[in-house]
Specification:
Layout lengths: L2 E3 L15 E3 L17 H17 L19 E9 L6 E9 L7 E5 L7 H11 L4 E6 L15 H23 L10 E5 L1 H12 L5 E5 L5 H8 L2 H6 L2 H12 L2 H4 L6 E7 L8 H11 L6 E6 L14 H18 L6
Parallel strand pairs: 5-6, 5-7, 7-8, 8-9, 9-10
Antiparallel strand pairs: 1-2, 3-4, 4-6
Helix pairs in contact: 3-4
Length: about 350
């Protein structure tokens, strides 16, 4: 098999180039492999049944080759609900804190959920981090300010204000979390999932102290994203308020903020993602690599769709992305002493 390099310059100290190569395993047979028409209807039905059984019990689509498993955990974990300050006086945000059950300082990460909000899958992810020496905060940023992203009748100014306050909440909570004694060097990384990846880049662009961003299948270029997601008829019927909101999002896409992100970045995306296409991450990677000194890498997972890392069960893709994330956070956020 030949390997196709997806992205990532060699020699930046994060991982060998092989980690970010994608190989393809043949999937469906080509036209020349298809059987001739069978005369017997019974034989055709038998062959069809066998084919269906093979299809549902084996990998019939291309998959990323060379995936490596996650290392075994070395720590027990402890966890608790906490709250943190938001961007305005009196605003508090709900969070869930998970850390290794050991003395010392550790790399710390803030997990930013997707559009669907907080759910238990993020806790499973946080426990995987804690077992390998990384403390984390799952931040419910909806608990401060909520934004209706897709409604066509929401007044623009109200939505814009809520949106900017929500971003301010995330910055304030991340800064407060970084000051907890467990966090090495008073630093945190950000791990964003889907909409949370958008939020991670907005936060990193506004806070130079963020040293690492891990982004899973996020929307970054809202010009193309809205065109893909929005029904053309609905858009044609949209009123002035909705069109102003569309223009605001396009102008303030994370893609436009890439030059302000001082953190090193690791992007993940499933090639089969039909919710947010992998091209979004490709565009973001291109913009980030224009920064020069700071590194940006991406790994695409063939055969994986949206939310692949949050699905129950430790799939090969989920395990591989966790392994790379842990190595990346250790590299960028390791304490001077402790680990």
């Amino acid at each position: 098999m030949t390997a196709m390099k997806i992205a990532g310059p060699a020699g930046n100290g994060l991982a060998p180039p092989e980690e970010y190569r994608l190989s393809f395993i043949p999937g469906h047979p080509g036209r020349e492999d298809r059987p001739r028409r069978w005369r017997s209807a019974g034989l055709r039905k038998t062959l069809l049944l066998i084919t269906l059984m093979i299809a549902v019990t084996s990998c019939v689509r291309a998959r990323t080759a060379g995936l490596r498993p996650l290392e075994s955990p070395t720590y027990a974990f402890e966890e608790a609900s906490i709250d943190l300050p938001g961007g305005e006086p009196g605003v508090r945000l709900d969070g869930y804190f998970t850390r290794p059950k050991a003395e010392g300082r550790f790399p710390c990460a803030v997990l930013l959920h997707g559009k669907g909000g907080w759910w238990r899958a993020y806790l499973r992810y946080a426990r995987e981090l804690a077992g390998r020496g990384i403390a984390s905060l799952i931040l419910d940023y909806y608990s401060g300010h909520y934004v209706d992203l897709e409604g066509l009748s929401v007044p623009f100014e109200h939505r814009r204000k809520q949106f900017e306050l929500q971003n301010s909440d995330i910055r304030a909570a991340a800064a407060a979390f970084s000051r907890r004694p467990v966090c090495a060097g008073g630093q945190v990384g950000l791990i964003g999932f889907s909409l949370g990846a958008d939020k991670a880049f907005r936060t990193a662009a506004a806070q130079p102290g963020i040293k690492a961003v891990v982004a899973y299948y996020g929307p970054y270029d809202y010009v193309s994203f809205i065109r893909y997601r929005m029904n053309a008829v609905l858009l044609a019927l949209a009123g002035e308020e909705a069109l102003r909101w569309k223009s605001y999002l396009e102008k303030n896409s994370p893609l436009a903020m890439a030059g302000k992100v001082e953190a090193n970045v690791l992007l993940f995306h499933g090639v089969e993602d039909r919710t947010i296409r992998a091209a979004q991450s490709v565009r973001m990677l291109t913009a980030l690599r224009r920064r020069g000194e700071k590194s940006a890498r991406m790994k695409l997972y063939e055969g994986a769709g949206h939310n692949f890392v949050l699905r129950r069960g430790l799939s090969a893709e989920r395990s591989d992305s966790l392994r790379l994330t842990i190595a990346f956070l250790r590299e960028n956020l390791s304490p001077k002493t402790g680990l």
